[in-house]
Specification:
Blueprint lengths: L2 H11 L6 E8 L5 H13 L8 H4 L3 E7 L11 H9 L13 E9 L3 H7 L2 E9 L2 H5 L8 H11 L6 H9 L9 H20 L8 H4 L23 H24 L6 E6 L1 H7 L1 H16 L8 H6 L6 E6 L10 H11 L1 H9 L3 E6 L6 E8 L2 E9 L5 E4 L9 H8 L33 H9 L4
Parallel strand pairs: 1-4, 1-5, 5-6, 6-7
Antiparallel strand pairs: 2-3, 3-4, 8-9, 9-10
Length: about 450
Amino acid sequence: MGLSDFTDGLMRGIGMGDPVIRLGVTGLSRAGKTVFITSLVANLMDRGRMTALRAAADGSIKAAWLQPQPDDTVPRFEFERHLAALTGPQPYWPEGTRHISQLRLSLRVQPRGMLGGLRGQQTVHLDIVDYPGEWLLDLRLMERSFDDWSQEVMTRMTGRPGAPDYLAALNEVDLSAKFSEATAQRLAASYTAHLNAAREAGFSDCTPGRFILPGEMAGSPALTFAPLPPSDGKSPLRREFARRYDAYKSRIVKPFFRDHFARIDRQVVLADVLGAIHAGPQALEDLRRAMADILSAFNPGRAGWLAQLLGLRRVDRILFAATKADHLHHSQHQRLTHIVTALLREARDRADFAGARTEAMAIAALRATTEDVIKQDGEELPAVRGTLMDGRRAAFYPGELPEDPAALLTPARQGQSEWLDGDYAVMNFRPAADTARPGDGPPHIRLDRAAEFLIGDRL
């Protein structure tokens, strides 16, 4: 912990300086982190659609503006560019999260009530930290040796795309031979190709996360290893891979936890639950395990007074949000909420037991559809209508989610390869044309409720 962190924590602890809320935003690929942050900031600046955020509805928030983030070494979240992509004349989805970034939104707030009148206005800083969920999954590697991790990966590899190619490459290697960098690079490249193929197919648990999003670490020895089958002997390749695995943990994973993740005090975890359901039971079960692992990385519950004084905060509110609720008619939103609640039951109970407040809901940070009713075989079906990625307008009925989440989670846990009595489709819509009135942020579904849970008490 640096001197600036200590000073910031000390100032907060004794009531000096402006209050700061450090909000972490994470999720796995295609969960919509970039869109969530962009729409949240835009709707906090123009609050006409934020009626469920009490401080916005009652006028307590007097103004909101962006200013430089406090961490000079962390890239700035490109809010303006992403907002232009979502609301321009030809709207499109911005690129997803590939590295950590940060944005500071400052809110001038007039607290309500008698004490609020005596205190006057204050400024509350919302520091939003965006980071890939794939990186967060790496935190559980800290408790695993190379052999333990290898065994786990080789077991779950069965049935995933790209796995046969990696196993074929592995079979060509003499594990007892002298270490060869060319062999290491070939295995690492094959394993990385498997991870990317698995992610494209809807699987969530793809570690190490930096293999998929390497950034400036691409090609480094710390990212040039791969899982190996169990062996009684310590081959040269196994010794070197174990050394690089340990370097990955100590040089990449641990600094991320120390410098960024451990300082977060509010967290939203986004999940593309609909996408996982569409991909099939194995992808849904993989998402359940991945989200449980993500939550195990948190240190939930209220921090003691000494930890607060020193700035060592612990997450005390966690929101689990199933995104893309606009792909469903509102009559199915509650069912989606029940599914994400059941999906995350294990992880959520762990956080609740430790003292953190948690909430699950279905949201759409940017609404891309309108609701419609279509007729099919003489039956009226609740549907949504939007513009497809190729520019065509279409109405879409994705299928009916079950009332009981167990109808999905049980076959997923049992390892079934496909749904026996349901076909859950997804369709890719592009952002709708901007029709916001002055004072309104982008259209959304329950983003204001999400904001109320995450930061409402601090406003």
